[in-house]
Amino acid sequence: MTLPPAAERIEKRALPVGGIALALCLISLTRGNLSQSYLIAYLFWLSLPLGSAALLMLYHLTGGEWGFVIRRMLEASTRTLPLMAALFLPLLYHPTQLYQWADPAKVAADELLKHKQPYLNTPFFIARAVIYFLVWIALSWLLTRWSAQQDHTNDTRPARRLLAMSGPGLIVLGFTVTFAIVDWVMSIEANWASTMYGVIYIVGMVLTTLAFMIFVARRFALAEPMNKVLQPAHFHDLGNLMLAFTMLWAYTSFSQFLIIWSGNLPEETTWYVNRMGQGWQTIAAFLVLFHFAVPFIVLLSRDVKRKMESLAVLAAAMFLMRMLDLYWTVRPAAGGAPSLRPMDLVAPIAIGGLWLWMFLRQLKVRPMMPVYNPQGDPSF
Amino acid sequence: MSDEHKPVPASEGENPFIGGEHTYATVTDKIAAIALARRTSKGWVLGFLFSFALMQLLLVAVGYLLYKGVGIWGINAPVYWGWAIINFVWWIGIGHAGTLISAILLLVRQEWRTSINRFAEAMTLFAVSCAGLYPLLHVGRQWFGYWLLPLPNTMRIWPQFRSPLIWDVFAVSTYATVSLLFWFVGLIPDLATLRDRAKVKFAKTMYGIFAMGWRGSAKHWYRYETAYLLLAGLATPLVVSVHTVVSFDFAVGIVPGWHTTIFPPYFVAGAIYSGFAMVLTLTIPIRAIYGLQDFITDRHLDAMAKVMLATGLVVAYGYMMEIFMAWYGGHPYDMYMVLNRMRGPYAPGYWALIACNIVIPQLLWSSRVRANAVFLWVLSLVINVGMWLERFIIVVTSLHRDFLPSSWGMYYPTKWDVMTFLGSIGLFLTLLFLFVRLLPVISIAEMRGMVSSPTDKEGGHH
Questions:
Q1: d(Cα A260, Cα A252) in Å, to the nearest integer?
Q2: B328, B338, B364, best to mutate vs chain A, most A CBs in 10 Å
Q3: pLDDT tens digits, residue range A185-198?
Q4: List of domains in chain B
Q5: Is A378 in the B-facing interface, judged by CB distances under 8 Å?
Q6: Tell me, what's the ipTM?
């Protein structure tokens, strides 16, 4: 299908812009001052294909028109995973920059790191990453393939397959994302552990995806042919989902905080000490206000959710807040006050540019709407 | 997009969640008849007598407890939280399914909730009543129970507001209040139906009083719908908040096995899991006895089974993260706690819990299992047992061997613990029997909305 002119323009420019930014990143990489900025940007953009896979499977399990109308965008988004796998490679260039456990000297000096060696070691780390990507790409492949088959038949078999894979698929996705996040982010502070950690990222990635999809759907709703399909009711449902995940984010984040604060054990509180001092507390308070309180209150309004434009503005703001949340989660791991390095801006443009390019290209190769919706068929 | 491929909203077309040929009249007849039948069936009388007798155990156990003190229970150093807290968490968890069904499923427009919500809400209320007893009995000097409330007093002594045990007081009492209101407001139109249909003067009067002058005018309905929706909105956060606070009771302490950040969502999922198991345990026999298969269809059971499967998997995620992080965190106490659960003196309980909560329920993946009511019923009992064991393992194994081996000990329940627990089951069943006999177990008003009326062949609209 053809994209709206604005999207065409973005697609044309995204590749060179992303490519140049990536080149800058790679230069910076060889000088050894990229890792954290890159990781933050990477986690942020990776949220989209993974969150899309989660939402697709949720949709296949529960139905609902909200999923039907953005389904093709979600599918296109999951098809960017091979690109994301390639973009993971720079993180492996110099693992000791990020991960103490990758440095034999530090491991030898630290009992706890020695204890974690069987899990936290570079070969196993890479092997796990390969497994995660294989699993995710397989999920994306199945989700897209069966959906495409459905376009050519009125038989419900592909839809049944999608339904059957979605339950196990969600489980597999949940576990792989959890461990990926433990590996890639939590292990930066290798002496710290929290059982809630994976859940917080999973909730965040779905929230990022919802915000992105609402924004994109709004753009598409301005032009033919999607303006005939996308209705305020869809935005209402998507807005409700965004509200639910905003609350879930606050719930999981606050629970983790409260439990650690109450326990007040030094090995656990370090994580918050690093994130609530030296200026980080301002960002933390900002997150409480604008990642939760304000969107929560605004999203309670039915009018906001049904007015596409207002919801899209809120979604765009939420999208940026997700970035800030990841920045607040990852950056303080190295200690020090908040600071903005050039790479903090370049890395998201690099990965984001390439990601958007791939996303829009993938969006073009399939019809924007599925031909047949067995979910709405009473005989299904 | 061609017309025949248009997505069809679930509310149009034939409703899959109601069987047989039903009209407004038959729905009303069928459901009201259970409460209004002149003769009480023998089965009901026997069941009620059994439950009532069981409840007497509670009376005896609590009476002796008030006389003698909590020393009659098995609690002692180092396990100060025994069956009382286990049963509290178990009962309060069971209640959550009712609130989820009645509030959240209403808000997300899941129509299949309609025939089970009344029943599930009643179950919630009765389960919360049983749950509420335990902490009150556990405080030791029960006559000072009101000290838990922040009452102004000359000594200026306040409860410790930082303690989740105090949040529990607020959470549970709010929960009980909102659940009661929600249930009662939902009952009003049905009570009016019963008032209009009752032949016995006394019944007519009583239903009349509680129907609060309901006449079914458009204005009544308008206010009713508004109130019901508002209460649903109020009840929704309670599904999450109550068990979250219960999980804080454990997690804010630093006891290995309690102090872990995954507890809140994992407790909430466990609560819904056990609650749906209890709904199935109760609805499957009731629908068979009163012939309600047209209203509580196999698709309802299927949907509930799926919710159980999903929440059960969240619980499994919680167990797994706990075990993994115990190793990953590298804390000797955490690691020991996990090993002690698996290999220590309570290991049989732990493995039984894994079997009941994680392994056996995987059968629910099979649609044939979900379609078999008898099998599902047995499975629901297994999950009920599993969730009780989970709380036992959490409470007892975490406490009985903590940091200092010199202060390790064992916990054994006494006959008074057992009597109190059985007695609370008696209380729960007694209330349920009364409910089934006196009130419509399915919402008549809402079920009418599900069927085609004689004049509206298209049907299905609210």
A1: 12
A2: B328
A3: 999 998 999 999 99
A4: 14-450 (1.20.1630.10)
A5: yes
A6: 0.93
